[in-house]
Amino acid sequence: MVRFIRKGNLKLKCKECHKSHSFEGRDLVFDPYGKTEKEDGTERKYLCTNDFFCSCDTKLKCEILITEYPEGKIADINYETKNAEVTEKCSISIISL
Ligand SMILES: [Zn+2]
Questions:
Q1: CA–centroid distance, residue 69 to ligand 1 (Å)
Q2: How many domains does the chain have?
Q3: Which member of 10, 11, 13, 63 lies 3.0 to 4.6 Å from 80 by CB, making a disulfide possible if both were Cys?
Q4: pLDDT tens digits, 12-22
Q5: What's this model's pTM, rounded to 2 decimal places?
Q6: DSSP 80
Q7: 61: CA distance to ligand 1 center in Å?
Q8: Residue 26 phi/psi, 5° resolution?
Q9: What is the residue range of 78's domain?
């Protein structure tokens, strides 16, 4: 069992109207997103999906995918966006419970 410590803010900019949107890192929710048994243990993935409408009616989407491998270590953090640009990333660290 792990928990993610999120610090700072996630900032997204609308690609249509360039408006900035800010989210508290600690409000981001990561849900388990599958696991794979590998040589050195279990690789687990966690996904945070954030989608909302900008004031210009464009639907913005930001997905953050964390790969935990081996257990208790963050191997990768991948950001994927739609109609948005990530201008600031929150810092994410992991603690094992
Ligand atoms: Zn916009």
A1: 36
A2: 1
A3: 63
A4: 999 999 999 99
A5: 0.93
A6: E
A7: 12
A8: -70, -15
A9: 2-96
